[in-house]
Amino acid sequence: MRARLRAGEPAAFAELFDSYSRGVYNHAFRLTADWSTAEDVMATTFMEAWRLRDRIDAEGGSLRPWLLGIATNTARNQIRGNRGYRRAAVATAAAVLPVPDHADEVTNQIDDQRRLAATLRALGALRRTEREVVALCLGEGLDYESAAKALGIPVGTVASRLSRARRKLRTLTKAELEEHDDAAMAGPPVVSGRVPRAPRTRSTDGSEKVRGRWEAGAAGRQIPGDRINTVRPAQEGNR
Predict the structure, then answer these.
(1) 80 in helix, strand or coil?
(2) What pLDDT digit, counting tens, does each position of 86-134 carry?
(3) What is the DSSP letter of 194?
(4) Distant-in-sequence, close-in-space partners of 111: CB < 8 Å, separation ≥ 6
(5) In whole angstroms, how far apart are CA 145 and each of 20, 66, 127, 149?
(6) Mean pLDDT of 40-62
(7) What gap in Å lies between CA 158 and CA 153, rounded to an integer?
(8) At what angle do helices 10-32 and 35-51 cross, to 10 degrees?
(9) In angstroms, rounded to a whole number, what is the distance separating the alpha carbons of residues 17 and 45?
(10) Pairing of strands 200-202, 208-210
(11) What b/e readout covers 85-123, taking b as 16+ CB neighbours within 10 angstroms?
């Protein structure tokens, strides 16, 4: 394939995209924490690969490390510094993921989402250089030599950065999960020792109605997330 790519054969480039596009996309997400940005990084990576095809070595193994190296450089230009990554990570972690309506799957789905959110926030506390070796070695499974080639740094540097990043990630992810659990157990905020009640409105016949589950002045409109059971009037039920 290398020779065909160097020669600019479109079919060879299509094979390259089919083989590695998913991996490049996943790698880009780990570096940017944003699905939309990851798509842009993936597209730019393959455009750059086509532009730089004449630099491909005639001999060698998989082109995956080369592509991931291009993706890493592209992602650096998309999100510069940890501040940009943290913003994207927090936004992604806070996003509501769809959960199917199957009781036996809900718990696992919620737990996976919670762990993903904690990991993203923990990654945001790493240095960019540490995050890159984590994405390559832990995310994509590259060995130290391949990761070093992709990043253009010595193998020893990859090993030291990854070791340091592993220690940080274990500590930070554990802290994130514990903080989430503490917040969940704390429950709703209490003011002056009392739980706030839903506001009440008085109807024309003098009875009180609680607002909060239904919108005022919009009978029959259900607030998102609310559930009710439909009950038929007695007259209708006797028909």
Answers:
(1) coil
(2) 777 767 766 644 555 555 555 555 566 677 777 777 888 889 999 999 9
(3) B
(4) none
(5) 19, 12, 21, 6
(6) 92
(7) 7
(8) 140
(9) 10
(10) antiparallel
(11) bbebbeebbeeeeeeeeeeeeeeeeeeeebeebbbbbbb
Local confidence band at 220 (pLDDT 50, 70, 90 cut-offs)? very low
Tell me the residue type at 66: W
The one-letter amino acid at 49: A
pLDDT, position 199? 52
Using CB atoms within 10 Å of the CB of residue 72, give its burial: 0 to 12 exposed, 13 to 18 middle, 19+ buried: buried
Write down the pTM of the prediction: 0.65
For residues 151 and 132, is the Cβ–Cβ distance under 8 A? yes
Q: How far is CA 113 from the centre of its chain?
A: 9
Mean pLDDT across the stretch 74-86? 78
Domains of the chain as residue ranges with CATH: 1-79 (1.10.1740.10), 105-185 (1.10.10.10)
The residue among 100 and 55 whose pLDDT is bigger is 55
Q: Which two tokens stand for residue 110?
A: 């919620």
Determine the straight-line distance between the first and last CA of the chain, rounded to whole angstroms.
76
